[in-house]
Amino acid sequence: MHTTRRSRLEAMAALLSPAAREGSGPVARLVRAGGLHCVFQPLADLREGGVYAHEALIRGPKGSALHAPDALLQQAQEEHILQDFELACVLTALEQWGRQDAPGRLFVNVSADALVHGVALAGAQRLGEMVRGFGLSARMLVLEITEHERVTDMPQLREAIKAVHACGARLALDDFGDGRSSLRLWSEIKPDFVKIDKYFIRDISEHPENLQMLQAIRGIADVFGTTLIAEGIETRDDLRVLRDLGIPYGQGWLLGRPAAQACEAVENAARDVLQDRRVAVLPHLGQTARPGILRSLLVVQAPTAAPGTSNDTVAAMFHERTDLHALAVVEGTRPVALINRQQFMNHYATLYFREVHGRKPCIAFANTAPRVVDLDCDVDQLVGILTSQDQRYLNDGYVVTDNGRYLGLGTGDQLVRAVTETRIEAARHANPLTFLPGNIPISLHMQRLLDHGTEFVACYADLNNFKPFNDHYGYWRGDQMIRLVARLCVSHCDARRDFVGHVGGDDFMILFQSHNWQQRCEAIIQEFAREALALFDEAARHARGIEAEDRQGVKRFFPCTTLSIGAVRVLRGQYDSAEQVANEAALAKHDAKQSPSGLHVHGPQLSGPVHTPLPLQRVA
Description:
Alpha-Beta Plaits; five-stranded mixed beta sheet; disordered C terminus
């Protein structure tokens, strides 16, 4: 061991600059004395559950001010020996890992500039030989580029990377997304691995925005053919989401902490998650009112008038273009007014108008406060037109601009259609009343469960006698009842295991992975029966129902509204598509409406005992 240590010190000394060989700073002394050591943190294979690799993390003397890597880097920078220090860290990692003779790859951190410097010192041809001298196969080494500063010479970095690949080693880009590692660098160096910064990983099970960002990063990785590694995995829920998203490798304290010796297996808590077939309930991000809605609409390419254009000229333009509903008044490229065709032509047809006003500027008969919307406006701006007290906007339409410059005109009927279609599409992603996931997320999650071979229970919940209640008390009270169902479903479900969606109206879908799903369903039914009574008036509570018209217009008595749930047990390989499961759940819901308990179960027995549902309690 003494010979190995002396050889390492000699190899380091040969690579050190005069500042490091002769410097009196604490880091320079540590490097010359071999006072650095490494700990190794495992990287896990999130598909197989085993240890894939280790990352070497440098440490200074224990108990000293220079034990932490950040303190070492800062001090090395102050001593102007940062590149010497980084190369010393790489050699320390190679030597200490070589002594362990552990399986798997080794990830070693190095900045881009230090990599260029190190390859130049060692020689591109001798790089592989140097790595093998430490007892490592170069193909098991991954040099992990960190960006302490911006890359100073990209052509030299590309040459250094060629040498790294030529010797058989691989390359990784560290901390992608932390504000330093850039997409351009990813494109330039084309790394074999990219490590996603922990900012996007931490609590990803609760942040739909980070989930979408991670999905975007995964798309970029597919384009470049890059393997992703998620950093900073600390909770079971985050690990489950990452596994289900198809991120192949991960690193974090949940999987394994840094240690002097290589790990043979991931931590038990992480292994339990990776072996569990249950699927993560991904955080939901509803389809919001995205900008750019006008880009999908037909913009009327209409001629324009200037503020000084005569009324006679405007009349001639309307006669020439009988399809125009309005005409924009534009000053330069900026719209300043709008002339409604019908109103203008009514004025123009009156007695003596042409003689008195024909040659005068058209601006006097224009709406100088037109509605102007840009191509990249969001749907809420368009809704503002529909709900405005000044309904001229529906008749006149609106002026369309592109980055403030006049582009054309939009019509009222186009506006109504666009807003309606956008709202309908948004409701398919998130119900506007309950904000629960709509049809599309429900189907996607159900298909994920089927694709993973997960056993689950699909429950279709529906209200009994809701229409007469809604007709009798009005839509406001009806909305309260629907929100009550949503609240009870969410409160009685495990957010990590169970998915609650709102199909529409008074129909809800719950996809259970919780083993005690049946008790949860019964609790929802029972609590709804109690709490819904508060939405009836005292006379209806006393009579246990209301008098209302049925669908044929005949007035009759309807019992107080209750909740029914039809459940379908889904076993692995039983169904191929979400549509099949949804259809079966709808049939189960129909049978549940005939059941005294309000709960009916279709399908084969799942693991665990199934108890008989309690009869629905009637509460006065």
